[in-house]
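== Item description ==
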Amino acid sequence: NALPPVSPYTHTNTQTHHTAMALSNYEQQRQQNIARNQELLAKLGLLNGASGGSPLKKAKPVKATNELPSETRASTRLRNRPLPPPQPAAAAVVPSKARKLVVLPTRRSSRARTSLRTTYREDSSGDENEDEEDEEEREYDGDKYSGVSSDASSPSASFKLASQPVGGPGNSSKNLHARVYDLHAQHLGRHIPKIGNQAKFAVMKAAAPAGISPVFNRMSGIQEWQNCIMLFVNVGGSDYKNIFGPDGTTMSWFAQATQNLNTHVVQRLVVHGARAAGPSGGSKVQVPSSLPLAELERSMHPGEMHSILLFCRLPDEPYVYLGRLALVSVSDKRLPIQFVWTLLDHPALARSAPFQEILAGAKQT
C-alpha cells in the first residue's frame, strides 16, 4: 500500500491558510483601535464630519534610496545656446517733488574752454604741490562772469552782521598773530622763497610766530590771522583785464563766488580796508547802499587796525610781498564781489624789480 504522492502545493496552501487567519485577527484588532480613536476624536471635536466617518488615511512611507539625483536632461541645442543679455533694472519711481530738483553742469565759457591763455585768479594751491593747481577756472571779462548769471540780484539786499567763526586748533592761523612788522621789514617787494615746492606755505611760515607751523586752508586765496588778512593772487592771464591801474597804485580784486556782503571775512575786509584808507580816505570809500559801513565800524573790532596784505606771483614763481592795502570801493552788483584796493606801499614798490615783473605780466594779458 503505497502512500499517495504529496502535492508540492500542500505545504504552501497550509501556510497561506494560517497567515490569512493571523491577518484576520490582526485586522479585527486594528479596526477596533480605529473605531476607538474615531470616537475619541469626535468627542474632542477634531473629527471632520460625523463620528462614523472614514478614518484618516495613513501617509505612504517614502521609499529610501541611496541614489544621487540625476542631472535634469536638457537638449544639446538648448544647452549650447548663448544666454540672453541681462535686462536693465526697472527705473525707480521718483516722487513728483523729487523730480523737480535738476542738477545742471557748471557753465563754462566756450572761449575760456578753448583758450591756451593763463589766467589771473585767486590762488587755491594744493598741499603737496602748490604749483600744480587744479582749480575751476573763473572768467571775468567786462560784464561777464562764467558760473554766475550777469543779472544776478544782490545777495546782500537784506544785510546782517556776520558772527565771527570760532574754534580750530591752537596753531590755526586764525588763532595766531602774524609778524606783520617782520614781513614788512624783510620781504616788501621781494620774493619769499618756496619751502620745497610750496609757495603759500612759505609765506604763512614766514609770518607765523617763531617755532610754529601754522595750520590753514591751502585751497583758499584768503588767509585770516588774528591781526591781519592775507590775499594770495596769481598773475598771468587775460580773463581779468586791467587788474592793476596804469601806474600800479591800484588793483582790482574779486572775492570767491560763494561770498557776499553778509560773509564774515568780506565784512572784515570792508571794515579794515576802510580804516586803512584813513579819516579822509575812509569817507570817500564807495560801498553798496545795503551795507551800513558805520554800523560795521562800531561793531567789528572797535579800535583795532587789521592789516590787509597782498601777495602776488607769476606762474610757477614764489610769491612777492606787495605790502598793505586800503579800500577804494566794493561792488556786489554782480558776483563775485569786486574790490578795488590802493597799494599803500607803492612808493617803495616802485623800485622793486619783482614788482615790475608782476606789473609786466599783468599787462601782457
Remarks:
- The first helix runs from residue 10 to 44.
